[in-house]
Design a protein that fits this description.
The protein is mostly helical. The protein is built from 3 helices and no strands.
Length: 82
């Protein structure tokens, strides 16, 4: 089960008033929508960063292979104690 924590958001007066006057069901629906929006805002950039990093690593790997780097040569470089 996910732990929930309360936060405070500043909104225009009219929005706050409408929220205060909403039913409990409406408040719960709004809370779920706000959570979904915030999660998407904070997780998408992370996913994009991971995708960009993978693309960079794939490109570096492809360039290394095109220049003649083989798994055996890479292993030799990584095992070189000098």
């Amino acid at each position: 089960m996910m732990t929930k924590e309360e936060i405070t958001l500043k909104v225009p007066y009219e929005v706050a008033q409408a929220y205060r006057n909403a039913s409990e069901e409406e408040k719960q629906q709004l809370q779920l929508k706000i959570v979904a929006i915030m999660q998407s805002q904070f997780t998408i950039p992370k996913q994009e960063s991971i995708t960009r990093f993978r693309n960079i690593m794939d490109k570096a790997s492809q360039e290394a292979q095109e220049r003649g780097l083989t798994p055996e040569i890479l292993e030799s470089i990584l095992n070189d104690d000098e």
